[in-house]
Structures are given as C-alpha cells and as structure tokens.
Design brief:
This protein is mainly alpha-helical. It has 8 helices and 2 strands.
Length: 186
C-alpha cells in the first residue's frame, strides 16, 4: 500500500510540474519574431494584432514597482489562451496575405523562404527543404524534431494539401506560433 501511495505521489508531482509552464511573455515573443523575421532594426509589432488595447498585459508581462520585478499573467488560462489565439491568428493571416505582396518589413532571408512556401500547393513548395526552412524561420530550434514531423505531415496529408497558399501559409504559421514549444518557457 505504501508503494502504491508513493507511485501516486510521484506521478502527481510530475503532472503538477508539467502544468506550471509559463508563457515566455508578450515582449519576448514579439522580440523573437522580430529578430528572426524582420529587417534589422525593425519590429514585428504584435500590439497591432491584440484584439483590444491593454490586453497584452494578460499575455505575460513584467511588472515593476520600485526595485521589485515580477512576471505577471504568465500562467496559461482560458482567457489568455484565447487572446493569444486571436492575436496570433491575425498575425498569421498577414503572413498568408504576404504571399501576394509582403505586408511586413521581412528580412531578405525570410522573404526568400516565404516566397518559396507561397508556391503552395505546387510540388516545389511541398518539399522537405522548403517546409523545413519555413519551420526553422519561425519556430527556430525550440521544438523537437517530432513536432516538425507532425506539423509537416498534417499539411502534406490533410485538406491543406490542395488549398491555396494564402489559407495554408496562414494555418502553418498559426500552428507554429500556437505551439507550446514556441509560446511557453520549459
């Protein structure tokens, strides 16, 4: 009986640790996207995509009072997950719309990758090197290879295989930016 209780206690503690991941924070996500995708000195301004003024404070922000610094609203909950979704969905739509004409000040390297993936659904866009380049451009090295494989296979084997580039690039970008390996500290 003691052994059983010990196993239950260990499993419960591991489960609680997994559920205490926090967001990187609004500013950190904005900086990471800007460094990876924007021209040097330019910013991908996520404030434009937050559904209402002031809601970014619910997405994980640093609060300073005197000499104290505290990270607030970093724990995922039903409200901030929804705000992240709306924000990143709107941003992802800009990526999809950029297939026709760039809507943001992207750096030349990313623009080259985006132009290739925007040939979707043609076979030259749905190849490993193009999909991998798009994945690493946005996701970086934050996720294990298994996450990339699931993402890639979903878009190659689902109805997105025949959808327009605008729809597919929007969905691809949203899937990456909403991925816990992108949004959460581990």
């Amino acid at each position: 009986m003691r052994f059983f209780l010990l196993i239950v206690a260990v499993l419960a503690s591991q489960n609680s640790l997994a559920q205490h991941s926090q967001y990187r924070g609004f500013a950190a996500v904005m900086k990471e996207l800007s460094v990876r995708l924007a021209k040097p000195g330019q910013v991908i301004d996520l404030y434009e995509y937050v559904p209402a003024e002031g809601l970014e404070t619910l997405l994980g922000t640093w609060y300073t009072f005197g000499s104290e610094h505290e990270f607030r609203n970093g724990s995922p909950n039903s409200v901030n997950v929804l705000i992240w979704y709306v924000t990143l969905n709107d941003l992802s739509a800009v990526f999809g719309n950029s297939c026709a004409s760039p809507k943001l000040d992207f750096n030349p390297e990313f623009l080259g990758v985006l132009n290739k993936i925007c040939d979707w659904p043609k076979d030259k866009a749905a190849v490993e090197d193009v999909m991998l380049a798009y994945w690493f451009s946005i996701m970086g090295y934050n996720a294990p290879e298994s996450e990339y494989i699931q993402w890639r296979d979903f878009f190659l084997k689902s109805s997105y295989r025949t959808k327009t580039a605008k729809e597919t690039v929007t969905a691809m970008t949203l899937a990456m930016t909403m991925n816990p390996y992108f949004l959460l500290n581990r």
